[in-house]
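Lab notebook, bench 4. The sequencing result for the construct came back, and we need a structural model before the next group meeting so we can plan mutations. Quick request posted to the team channel:

Model the 3D structure of this chain.
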Amino acid sequence: MAFVEAKDGTEIFYKDWGPKDAQPIHFHHGWPLSADDWDAQMLFFLRKGFRVVAHDRRGHGRSSQVSEGHDMDHYAADASAVVEHLDLKNAVHVGHSTGGGQVARYVARHGQPQGRVAKAVLVSAVPPLMVKTASNPGGTPIEVFDGFRAALAANRAQFYIDVPAGPFYGFNRPGAKVSEGTIRNWWRQGMMGSAKAHYEGIKAFSETDQSEDLKAITVPTLVMQGDDDQVVPYRDAAILQDRLLKNSTLKIYPGFPHGMHTTNADVVNADLLSFIRG
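Done. Here's the predicted structure in token form:
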């Protein structure tokens, strides 16, 4: 397995597939998963001739289960460590959910200033701010995230069945085509990681205000989200992202869930390809 050492010594696992002289697409996964969550996209774009890269966030998947650094600043710096180690240039950075927040901070503070980023994609992403505050009245009440923390601490293994079996993929909707394999794969990825990293990651993805990150991004950015996202409400996410970004394309998908890159990979992949090649 391949690892790069972050500035604080944390070992970050990464995958790097395809021709090294091809345009790179770097995928950033959601909470509490791993690079494996992008399998459907990495194989698709590999077949299209791209170089595909993905890494496990610190405390997730195969990366080090360190005690500290479970915040957006470290997430973005770790992503930059992978990019710099592989010397990725003209890259497209694609982030889902928490990974979308990671992409926004990485592009704004590292990749764009270094001239390494061609385009960015935010898929069902958490920016600008998930939690409800006086200045963000449409956000999700803090009690919801407190409930996540309580469920994780009480029985993480059960919580990691309940989330994918329910709202994450929309499998709780009437008539939904439930995939037991998808649920088990979500559980597998989640249980590989650190309970502490996942617990503290809830604060990172829900309470980090990334409005300034979005305002700073000037590269073309595709914003994608389903209007039946039960995890990250699209009106407080994709709609606001589109308003804050300087050079964005917005796509809202009727009926698609939070994990639409898995449940509707054919549609998502086609639109990603069109944006990247456009």
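The first strand starts at residue 2 and ends at 5.
Will bring this to the meeting.
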